[in-house]
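Hi, here's the filled form for the chain we discussed.

Project: internal
Contact: R.S.
Residues: 822
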Amino acid sequence: MSDTPYPPKTGADDTGTPGTTAPALGRLDRAVRDLRPVDWIAAALTGVGAFVVAYLVAVVSLLLTTALVVASSGSSGSTGSGSAGGSIGDTGGDGIPAISGLITAVTVIFGAPAQLVALADFGRLSIHGSVTVIASVSGSIHIGVVPVLVLVAQLVALVLGVRLFRSRRLDLLQSAVASAVTGASLALVALVVGLALAIRLPKATGFDISGITAVNALAVIAAFVLGSFVALLARPAWFARMHPVLSQLLGTVRVAALHFGVLLVVVMVGVIIYAAVAHPDGASALPLVIGNVAVIAIAIGFFGGVSVSESAGSLMSTLSGSSSGAGAGSGTATVFSGGSVTAWLLVLLVVLTAVVSGLALAVRRNRRDRTVADWVATAVVYALLGLMLQVFGTAVFSVQIAGVGGAGSAGVTPWTIAVLAAWGIAIEAVARYLAPLVLPAATPGLLRVTRRFIGRDLTASGPGASAGTGQMGAGQMSDGQMGAGEAGAEPAIAAEPMSPRKRRILVRSLIAGGIVLVLVVGGAITAGTLRSTVYGPGHAAEAYLAALSSGDADAAGRLSGATGTGKGMLTTKVLSSAKDRIRDVAVGNATVSGDLASVKVSYRQGGESHDSTLKLTRTGTSWLIHDKWAVTSSLAAPVSIATASALGDADVTVDGVKVGTTKEGTLTLSAFPGTYSIAVAGTKYFEASSKSVTVTADGYAGSRLEFAAAPTSELKSDAKTLVTDLIAKCAKATTGELDDACPFYGPGSDATKVSYKVTSKPTLSVDLTYDGTVVVTGDGGKVDMKYTRDFFGSNYKGGYEQSMYIYKSLTIQGDKLVLIDR
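And the returned structure, exactly as it came back:
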């Protein structure tokens, strides 16, 4: 086909009447009729081809992800000859593959890429199903996230398809019709393939998931709009010729698009290198999300933010059963909130590319006149770029399970759009004020190469521009005028060679600007490094562990802000006397989310290695970078002490330092990691006792420390004396009726002249029951009893010897023993 445009219309309408304008419907009908079959086929094939390219990119991404997952798990996994039930290789008794497994494999292998393409067209991945354990629980999950790599592949395929297949220039209306056909074919293929290749999982006992698809009305409409719009703008010459302002606006769009494209490619390459070097184990999903990761990184480099919505945090807390409250897990991360060196390198990359974009914008315009509309246009275009970052870098989701659920989002913050608009103003300032100083030093060849990528604006000055022919007006300048001073129209930047004075000014300005840029970026990187290291959570965690290692509980308390520090066992006297304190401390990676952080730490204690995670919270910030962090999950563990009730309220000491008093036989204290000697104070009748305990961050060996009451020799002596005195007292009695406490019996109340004589003392032993009762037992004692009894007026003398069996209970009251059964 020829690239010659259709002949211009003569002005006659469809009725043949000259000099009248054809009605809109008539012009549309004529445009449709003038499209040749090859134009219709080319438009349709462009849409289909764009879907195929996006589908293939999705297939490659999934294959790479699968390969990385298999490779990362290969070292830890084992290979066997069996296979799980229901897999692709399962066969029935006659050797025919299981139909359900085959269908599942086909829908997953071919359906997953189709659903990725639907997600790229702003679809929502919908999962509906039910699970039956005790009762049936049904629910649904909807996820919306744009696979940036797949979307970019689809858009690039649309642009290239239009430029390759649409081999001749169409007028504006015909281009619009052909673009609509392209969008319709793309939407139709996405709809049919997405529904036909919905992922279908086989039904199992207690498990029923319906077809998983991302195709919905929004995806179809978005595919049509994207396909039509991109196909129409793939050849924007008609718009540019309509009015110079449109040409200038499209030129700004083109420069911003190239700016974003270069950033996207460079950042993706950087992400791949960074993941391969620093986090090889976590790079398995990178082929699927590398575009999204790059978009988020670019947003941060533009001083934007990344956040998790409060509703998403609340939903996570609800589904996980956490009691941390609404909004848990929400927060905003920026380059200023603990930004690493990598984040500030992103900022440097954005600054450099922004300067280049401003210079490219000046080359594209190639004119002296500047209007207020240029400021607005550049700000609006970059605000739209911020909107793209916000849309492509955000994931939305909704969950509804058993009547509980909600919706939320995570990704680039909406206010990033305003930040990008400010960047647009800064880039416009570069094009206006820095470009006239820099571009005269550029060579014509460099300018021509630059214009090959960014094109050239049309201006309103000169008859050529007003005629819409695309000729340069008087306000434009040639390559030589922009650079080396070749002849041409009136230059926007002085065409004559630079004078030595101007050259010196340019050199000095560039040097000064470079120094300022280095100082600003270097200062920002230094500030970010200081904030993430010296003033970061990792440094606070290291200082906390160092305090525990040196035995400084007071410093550990100041760093943690924990209640109870300085009391009980959480004192410097106690901790400094402990053995086996932590040593060889190592601080790992710190994860910061808003004002919360977690730091992985490791240390040795008693010859064993321990790993733990410290939780910290930011309590304040001074001088923009000096963050104050407090440890909220200390390594202290509880120590429970139980004493026998006989000891009463006993004082407890640790290495000679009193740490508390038991109440009703119990005392619970917190202690930092270490080995302690815990003692319970003794009394007049009970000996002091001590035990050694090793406390770790996971607790100590044994559920609790139990201290029994160990009687002293004085307790035994006093208890025996008390019983011996009782026997002696009873032996002095002269009545036949004795006290119930006596260990032997009398002859009765009618006996007279009664006497008792201990002929053999019992052998006594003292024991202590669990409730603190002192028990004295003994046998072998004998007593000779004599008496007189009246028998029908005559006195009858009698007597006999009886044995004593001792079982007496005593209790301790203060520092005295008291007989219970008197």
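Let me know if anything looks off before we file it.
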